[in-house]
Design brief:
Layout (H helix, E strand, L loop, with lengths): L1 H12 L3 E6 L9 E7 L3 E10 L2 E10 H6 L9 H17 L5 E4 L8 E4 L3 H25 L2 E6 L3 E6 L1 H8 L4 H10 L5 H12 L21 H7 L4 H15 L4 E7 L2 E7 L8 E4 L2 E6 L26 E4 L1
Antiparallel strand pairs: 1-2, 2-3, 3-4, 5-6, 7-8, 9-10, 9-13, 10-12, 11-12
């Protein structure tokens, strides 16, 4: 019995699970090795890859509690569920208007209703109150699931992931990664730090998604989920990189740039002559694409997206 207790104690104190993932080389990308281990209360991540002929290593540990509790309300947007909330709000508000009769009209797209009131003035006022109640219910639903309504150019209203809010609320859970980066780069520049993050994040396997604006959050992974699942699409990786930059360089200016079926990061920093740059609201930004698998340095973006970066045309959100 004593021997069994000793073995159990050693297991609890040491590594419980060890997994070595060897990523096969992809087009334009080098392989990266990830060793994942688990102890009682932490998940441990150790990466290594070849960079310019030299071995690069990066390691950190994340509390399991952070992994389990990350953005619990985040989920994919559901138009059907949104209509349910709006319908409930409509009928609850209608019950507060005893002199008004409201009847839902079936078989229509979204929610439509018929209203009967004592006169035209009452009808108009009641309709405004009912529509406002439905809009507030919809907004509350979006906030619960970390989504937002956004106006994309030209004149395209979409419901999309609230990247800014997710970045801000993910930062405390990413602090162990930021501390590891700070130890690795005690004295560095925004460019050097951005380049290292690109070298690492671009090597994390890419998760494909066809239409980003119309996806309703499908495919998007919050930052810790990208780390945990070792995969992510373009805006998932952009938010991860943005959150880490904000932790290490709090005053850095950042924006997420929305391109057709793609998203990249814009970083406010000193530009080199050959950097691809973009002016947003009077400030200059250098573009960076953490998507992968192509290993593109800071300031370089695929030529197929450059036509969408014209001032006044590009869609973006400051982070």
């Amino acid at each position: 019995m004593a021997a069994k207790k000793s073995t159990s104690s050693i297991l609890r104190a040491g590594w419980l699970i060890s997994l070595l993932l060897l990523l096969s080389p992809l087009s334009g990308a080098a392989s990266m090795q990830l060793q994942k281990s688990q102890s009682d209360d932490h998940l441990h991540f150790h990466y290594q890859w070849q960079q310019n002929g030299q071995l690069t290593q990066f390691a950190f540990s994340i509390p399991q509690q952070s992994m389990q509790q990350q953005l619990p309300g985040f989920r994919r947007y559901s138009a059907k569920l949104a209509d349910t909330y709006r319908r409930q709000a409509l009928m609850q508000k209608a019950a507060e208007l005893p002199s008004v009769q409201v009847q839902l009209l079936p078989g229509r797209t979204g929610i439509d209703y018929q209203l009967k009131a004592r006169d035209q003035a009452e009808a108009e006022q009641s309709r405004r109150q009912l529509d406002e109640a439905m809009q507030l219910a919809h907004q509350h639903y979006l906030e619960q699931i970390y989504h937002t309504e956004w106006q994309l150019k030209p004149r395209r209203q979409v419901i999309m992931v609230d990247h800014q809010r997710i970045m801000q609320q993910s930062m405390p859970d990413l602090m162990p990664i930021a501390m590891s980066l700070q130890q690795k780069f005690p004295y560095t520049t925004t460019r050097e730090l951005s380049q290292f993050l690109l070298d690492w994040i671009q090597r994390i396997p890419y998760q494909q998604l066809t239409d980003r604006a119309a996806s309703g959050g499908e495919g998007f992974s919050p930052p810790l989920r990208v780390i945990q699942q070792h995969q992510g699409d373009c805006d998932s990786k952009a938010v991860l990189m943005a959150a880490l930059l904000k932790l290490l360089v709090p005053d850095v200016r950042l924006a997420i740039i929305y391109l057709p079926n793609h998203a990249v990061l814009a970083i406010g920093m000193q530009a080199n002559d050959d950097d691809l740059q973009l002016e947003l609201e009077g400030q200059n930004y250098v573009l960076a694409d953490p998507t992968g698998p192509a290993l593109q340095p800071v300031g370089l973006l695929s030529s197929r997206y450059r036509m969408y970066l014209q001032p006044g045309v590009v869609n973006y959100r400051l982070l």
